[in-house]
Specification:
It is built from ten helices and eight strands. The protein has 240 residues and is an alpha/beta fold. The two termini are 26 Å apart.
Length: 240
């Protein structure tokens, strides 16, 4: 799994964003059925010139489809939308719907993996309680839990739980919309000669998360990925 990906939430015409990202070093696209742009993701990947097998693509099933048959149908439609025979990662999008519904959807995804439609199965917005339901049902533990993470939403209990259980933590909304003018973020932006978004993505990486910054602006997509070859000092990480 790549260490950074492009998020495409609220980007109905995301083909160009995916194309730009892949042509500028990104190798992961994070989508979802709820975003209604799986077709666009497929178009962008094909237009990028990067081989399908070199791109890590994620989608998610939304809770209204949390039955075994509903999730299976959603997965098949997602694959048709993408124009590929598989997804690298497929998640349950939320913990809504109740225990039985969550487990039915998760079982459907595991069967999708067994049949080759998915390479890895994960969850999103799950607490430790929800993941323990999966363990208690005797099912394979998710490889990923995708949650909101940034300096103003650090969710330490579930992060600690995931680390102890070898579950990769993906960070959505890593750019803290509307808070880039925070004095600490501005201070570090000046100190490191990086823009505030780069500071936040770098913070996420140094915390061991997999950040998924989203943008429809080509220049922002490129700069959000320019977060390697430098580090935020420990004292500054503590400020964040």
């Amino acid at each position: 799994m790549p260490v950074i990906g492009l998020g495409v939430y609220l980007n109905d015409e995301c083909a160009e964003a995916c194309e730009v990202a892949l042509q500028n070093g990104y190798r992961m696209i994070d989508g979802a059925r709820y975003y209604e742009n799986e077709i666009q993701v497929g178009v962008g990947v094909r237009k990028s010139g990067v081989k399908r097998e070199d791109v890590f693509i994620t989608s998610k099933v939304y809770h209204p489809d949390f039955t075994y048959d509903g999730t299976t149908a959603a997965l098949k439609e997602s694959i048709a939308n993408l124009g590929s025979s598989y997804y690298d990662l497929y998640l349950t999008h939320s913990a809504l719907g109740g225990k039985d519904a969550r487990l039915a959807a998760y079982r459907a995804l595991l069967d999708g993996k067994a049949s080759g439609m998915i390479k890895s199965v994960g969850v999103s917005n799950y607490s430790a309680k929800h993941i323990e339901e999966i363990r208690e049902a005797g099912l394979e533990i998710p490889v990923v839990n995708q949650i909101e993470l940034h300096p103003f939403c650090q969710q330490k209990p579930i992060v600690d739980y995931c680390r102890k259980n070898n579950i990769v933590v993906q960070a959505y909304s890593p750019l803290v919309c509307g808070a880039l003018d925070n004095p600490v973020i501005q201070e570090l932006s000046t100190k490191y000669s990086k823009d505030p978004a780069q500071i936040l993505v770098r913070w996420s990486l140094q915390r061991g998360f997999v950040p998924l910054p989203k943008s429809s602006q080509p220049e922002r997509i490129i700069s959000n990925g320019q977060v390697f070859g430098w580090e935020i000092e420990p004292t500054d990480m503590a400020k964040l």
